[in-house]
Amino acid sequence: MTSSPCKHEAFDSKVAITRMEDTGQFLAEITIECLQCHRPFQFLGLTPGLDLRGAAMDLDGLEARLA
């Protein structure tokens, strides 16, 4: 018996805000997970790494980093 695939109808998100010392800038690190199957949301279309003037993601795409 195979279970039906999750429809990902409910999500949990976590946002961590970091103050970049001596710059006056902030960085938001965002992760999202399905509440039903616990699969992490994968961000697409962002450049991997860190961009202090825009948006980027970690190497596996599971965390968005927004400046």
Would you mind describing this structure in some detail?
- The protein is mainly β.
- It has one domain (11-66).
- 0% of the residues lie in helices and 42% in strands.
- The protein has no helices and five strands.
- It has a five-stranded mixed β-sheet with strand order 1-2-5-4-3, with no helix packed on it.
- Strand 4 and strand 5 form a beta hairpin.
- The mean pLDDT is 94.
Write the layout of secondary structure elements.
Blueprint: E1 11-20, E2 25-34, E3 47-48, E4 55-57, E5 64-66
Parallel strand pairs: 3-4
Antiparallel strand pairs: 1-2, 2-5, 4-5
Quickly list its features.
single chain; 5-stranded mixed β-sheet; 67 residues; mainly beta
Strand content: 35-45%
Order of helices and strands: EEEEE
Gyration radius, in Å: 15 Å
Total domains? 1
Q: Specify the helix fraction band.
A: under 10%
What sort of overall outline do the alpha carbons produce when their principal axes are compared?
A: elongated
Number of helices: 0
Quick recap:
The protein is mainly β and about 70 residues long. It has strands spanning about 10-20, 25-35, 45-50, 55, 65.
